[in-house]
């Protein structure tokens, strides 16, 4: 009985309706097609009405329509029964896979009967008949011409046994989902379509493919029966690829009819329908079925390589998931692999499919996706994921609005539309211009430091030659001495910066632009005015130069200048993130802990001051809420990441005044210049102290305004904290350079926020004050470019020794050289040079007085005139040479000349050297090192864990065709 068409079946436009049937243009005999359609539904009440409308609009319609309901709990069964000409609905359990459901439906209703009456074209009933099975999902809707176009292509290409339509996005979108599908031997599904690609006819070529989606798949009955349908071991995921692969192996062609269009809703892929009938994760199930499909169908000679490839891919993807803080993804990877390989189901499938091998693998090899395509897709997805997660890293929770829309509009730079695009972009991005200037200026300012050799100064020891030597220095120290934590961090940075020397060049010579870029990342969080933000970031970068950190070679302050704004941005994220349920950001808290660990290592005094501020601010300002706990957690994490250096700082507080790379910065001690102290310019800085006075005056003037921003007050708080820390450090005789830099940074933040608050004021006084700020900045920048990086920092050889003494330190001689310095009126100083001489970190790992006592006693005896036994004593200490650099003390030189066992060696003019006779004495050096590898390995693991927790989370996606993700009811 003919059923009534449903209301709203005009869902399709007239362009979708079929035209009159045309003959085969090749003039081949007509064929009578008999089509049995099978619709499998599961919880599909939201989409079945549209499918019903689509079936009403079809012309021709299927000869038989079979509906199978897989345990639905909604109105799916009733909607299936209301379809045009449908057979009684077949009900199966919810755990029934798609292929099994189709087989059950055919068993219950059978294929459509072959007609014996007159055919539809006026023939006498003797027209050749071909039977077809048409598979439909409950969330798809074929266009009215879909079946006609599929049958027309089947008529024109009778040798093709499986046809698939072009899939578009539901309900009538032009976005392409699939036009045939293939796979790589690594198991990656490939549709050849980019995400969001629109259908413009670019894929409308008739061609053979490896497989087509089961949504709209048209299969000849003899092919279906010869292949025994879909593999029951694949209830979902990859069953269509497996079916197409088996069809190709058996000699049946698989084709795509791009004129036949089927719209697909992707119900499960979009999360509109949950995965039913399984407790396994969709990703895990997809990976498992991908392995099964490849192992069951690939040539036997490739199996060892494929298994190795699966293992390597699993390891790489597991590492990626762990780095992305998705350990369940790594578990799914290994569960899928280990649950497939030893299970043995694929081995039985291989035995059952041997009879299908009628076509050699080399003949169907072009149908597979090339491995290079899979690699390209993986790289694109990885890059896209990383960039997306970085963009979302600080935006995954709504921020409080800093300014109103009107103010933001007021601060937006307006540019005439007739300006060239590049000029408009530059005007709207003043910091880009400023940063390019800083980068070029860094090269110009470092003109005297470009060349051979290494960077050195009185405050900076030469860097190590290789990464191996740097790692050894980070893990080795005399007994009872802890190696500095910053050496391990510097080693990690050097691994990506072409070695220790390259890392040193970048941190010192590129400190100004790098610090400016970091400051811009902080200021953009609360400063709206782009000009103010550009000035603040540029002034902050130039403050590294005015502080003397570059010219003096103070790598600790340079690193702190880069890290401080990043720490501020992380703290801002923790303190400002607010949601109804979630407060703060643990990811930002982990990152803040990493930044504090760097400060503790490179500038302990500054790290201690910042940690105290954060603990007090977290406990008092934020209370013991989630944000306060996160700030305290970041401080504790920073202390843990630099163990055992934290213990060394507690046991020896005098080390707080040290900076990484050399001795403490020349401090402003009692009775020294008060202007240097108040302006934050250490003694020896390249700029005069009065150059900072205008900045301080403007910061003071900003306090006179009626309305002050809280970030402006925070800037002043940082400046006062730096001033207090400088006073304490200078009175204790420690290094105050990094603390002075914090003072200057606080003033810059205060002035930048004040500039941002006054905006584009037209008051003459305001414009005059801003003009003073700009003029001062320009003068400072000019001072930087003209003077450059001249000062204590210079580039030269790593050792100031004769060439033969430098080469003598290498194997096989491995000589030890005692370098003694004795100026008139000053005490004797010495250093034992071996293995390339004293390098970075040697100051922190200097031997204790007890260990150096044998050498000290010998030198004390020499200073008193000697006893004649010092030569044998030096040989017993495994010393090969004694070297006195200029100026040489005449008394000490005469004493050494008269000692037996010492022979005068060549030296530069003004210097003196002696060779120690060790032929009769096999001495041993008292200054031995102990390797602390366990601490360094544990520290490396801790850093990796911290980095993982501060990275964005990786999301898992199921690489299966659009619209068939996570489904049992396909």
UniProtKB/TrEMBL annotation:
SUPFAM superfamilies: Nucleotide-diphospho-sugar transferases (SSF53448). Signal peptide: none annotated. Coiled coil: none annotated. Gene3D superfamilies: Spore Coat Polysaccharide Biosynthesis Protein SpsA, Chain A. GO terms for molecular function: transferase activity. The keyword Transcription regulation does not apply. Keywords: Membrane, Transferase, Transmembrane, Transmembrane helix. It holds the Pfam family Glyco_tranf_2_3. InterPro entries: Glycosyltransf_2, Nucleotide-diphossugar_trans. The chain crosses the membrane at residues 431-450, 506-527, 539-568, 605-624, 631-647, 687-704, 713-733, 739-758, 765-786, 934-954. This is Glycosyltransferase family 2 protein. It comes from Kribbella turkmenica. The lineage of its organism: Bacteria, Bacillati, Actinomycetota, Actinomycetes, Propionibacteriales.
